[in-house]
């Protein structure tokens, strides 16, 4: 049993199929009992009665099925599922089954047998060996399946049950919140570099250290007041044919200059008085004063004369 991996203390379920010689069946069971020792246990079940057995779930470390040379059987999906139920998590199964090169209704191919094991809940399905069927096994298989071909071979496959029970569940914590990225770690500074750019108190008091005067960095041209014309934008107020217009948010002084020119133009447009007393009223006006008959006004206030007054004058 060393080639199968059965060790002392293991619990083994040995499944046999008809026809099997009683002497061979007894000898194989005794060999299994010797391999597991006094602390192990071997249970023998017939393939047709396995679904009616009263074994509890997760009882056996090993399931060995149809390993006798003179027997051969087809493992149904129900039988494989029952074997998976009886195995402990992480337990192993080793079985022999006749396969054919071309799929038929009664005999499966090696690929179909592998797929049946996976569908029954097994994993790590591996082909161990492949050999010819014995005459006894071939005769038994033809009797059961009515298969008459000559392309049969005996395939031994091993598989294992996952490390959890069939139908087991576990809570998974999912976080859909926005994860805050971790701040990037600052690269480590070279101690020599840090020392190079560090000034100590002794360095500042050292007479050999040359300090640069900030005033020496400016020459005479830097101290001159710039010409306002040079501060204007290249296209600011240019063009003799165009009217001067300051830019929005003007900072070169053109807006203030145009404002002063506008105020000066308004002053020149005001009517001039020869005597300088026209604004006081008719008592102080000349006989030919254009403001005669008009009310008094403030000095510099622009007075608009209507057409009637101009005609009468």
Please, could you describe this protein's structure?
This protein is an alpha/beta fold and 313 residues long. Helix content is 27%, strand content 16%. The protein contains 10 helices and 6 strands; from the N terminus they run βαββαβαβαβαααααα. A 6-stranded mixed β-sheet has the order 2-1-3-4-6-5. Helix 1 links the parallel strand 1 (11-16) and strand 2 (41-46). It is elongated, with a radius of gyration of 56 Å. It starts with 10 loop residues before the first strand and ends with a helix. The model has no long low-confidence stretch (mean pLDDT 79).
Short description:
With 313 residues, the chain is of the alpha/beta class. It is built from ten helices and six strands; from the N terminus they run βαββαβαβαβαααααα. The mean pLDDT is 79.
Which tags fit this structure?
313 residues; alpha/beta; six-stranded mixed beta sheet; 10 helices; 16% strand
């Amino acid at each position: 049993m060393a080639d199968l991996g059965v060790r002392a203390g293991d619990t083994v379920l040995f499944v046999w199929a008809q026809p099997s010689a009683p002497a061979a069946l007894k000898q194989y069971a005794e060999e299994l009992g010797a391999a597991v020792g006094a602390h192990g246990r071997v249970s023998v079940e017939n393939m047709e009665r396995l679904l009616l057995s009263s074994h509890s779930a997760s009882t056996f470390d090993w399931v060995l099925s149809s390993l006798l040379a003179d027997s051969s059987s087809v493992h149904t999906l129900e039988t494989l599922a029952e074997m998976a139920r009886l195995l402990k998590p992480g337990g192993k199964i080793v079985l022999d089954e006749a396969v054919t090169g071309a799929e038929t209704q009664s005999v499966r191919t090696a690929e179909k047998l592998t797929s049946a094991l996976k569908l029954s809940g097994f994993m790590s399905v591996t082909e161990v060996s492949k050999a010819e069927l014995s005459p006894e096994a071939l005769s038994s298989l033809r009797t059961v399946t009515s298969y008459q071909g000559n392309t049969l071979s005996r395939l031994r496959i091993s598989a294992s049950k996952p490390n959890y029970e069939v139908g087991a569940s576990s809570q998974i914590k999912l976080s859909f919140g926005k994860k805050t990225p971790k701040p990037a770690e600052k690269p480590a500074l070279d101690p020599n570099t840090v020392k190079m750019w560090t000034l100590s108190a002794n360095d500042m008091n050292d007479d050999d250290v040359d300090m640069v005067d900030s005033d020496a960095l400016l020459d005479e041209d830097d101290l001159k007041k710039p010409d306002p014309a040079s501060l204007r934008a290249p296209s600011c107020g240019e063009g003799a044919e165009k009217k001067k217009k300051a830019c929005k948010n003007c900072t070169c002084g053109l807006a203030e200059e145009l404002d002063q020119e506008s105020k000066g133009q308004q002053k020149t447009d005001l009517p001039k008085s020869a005597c300088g007393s026209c604004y006081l009223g008719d008592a102080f006006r000349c006989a030919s004063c254009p403001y005669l008959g008009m009310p008094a006004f403030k000095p510099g206030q622009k007075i608009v004369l209507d057409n009637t007054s101009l005609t009468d004058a």
